[in-house]
Design brief:
- The structure is a single chain.
- The protein has helices at about 5-10, 60-80, 105-120; strands at about 25-30, 35, 90-100, 130-135, 145-150.
- The protein is α+β, with helices and mostly antiparallel strands and about 160 residues long.
- Strands 1-2-5-3-4 form a five-stranded mixed β-sheet, with helices on one face.
- It is globular, with a radius of gyration of 15 Å.
- It starts with a helix and ends with a strand.
Length: about 160
């Protein structure tokens, strides 16, 4: 089943794409690899879901949801850059940044929300390596930011 067909089957509407400001681009492709800019957990209207920090303002379950939403936004950037999610051959890596207090130690749990979304939507092509990093702050007071690197299907 194609990635686009799976989205339809799962009744998932990807938000965005919410491209970054000039001179940045949402997705860049080079030599069969596509990379996204950082994607925030924006809802369908473009609002940041649950602004704040994990360990203070945002409960872990909401952070996990935000990570999943940020991953969907990153997929939206890939789709816009490649023309279709069906062009994604394999997600290679994902970086998840979590805005959190210094004592917050569940960063991998939050990042799992993004990993789950990639596998749910892309199947085995969504399996990836990952770094999950706690940070002091993210743009727009977002609790999570996600970057993706993916291999693009070779031309037929």
């Amino acid at each position: 089943m194609s990635h686009e067909a799976r989205l339809t089957q799962l009744r998932i509407q990807l938000p965005g794409p919410f491209a970054p400001h000039e001179p940045l681009v949402g997705c860049f492709q080079f030599n069969g690899v596509a990379r996204t800019s950082g994607a925030l957990p924006r809802d369908l209207e473009g609002r940041i879901a649950w602004p704040g920090h994990l360990g203070r303002d945002v409960p872990v379950d909401r952070g996990i949801e935000c990570a999943g939403l940020a991953a969907m936004n990153a997929l939206s950037l890939l789709r816009a850059g490649l023309g279709s999610l069906d062009q994604v051959w394999q997600v290679l890596s994902m970086t998840v940044y979590v805005a959190c207090t210094p004592e917050f130690d569940r960063i991998p749990d939050v990042a799992d929300g993004a990993s789950k979304v990639l596998v749910d939507i892309l199947g085995d092509a969504g399996k990836h390596t990952r770094s999950a990093i706690g940070v002091v702050a993210l743009p727009r007071k977002a609790p999570v930011e996600v970057e993706l690197t993916a291999a693009v299907r070779p031309p037929a």
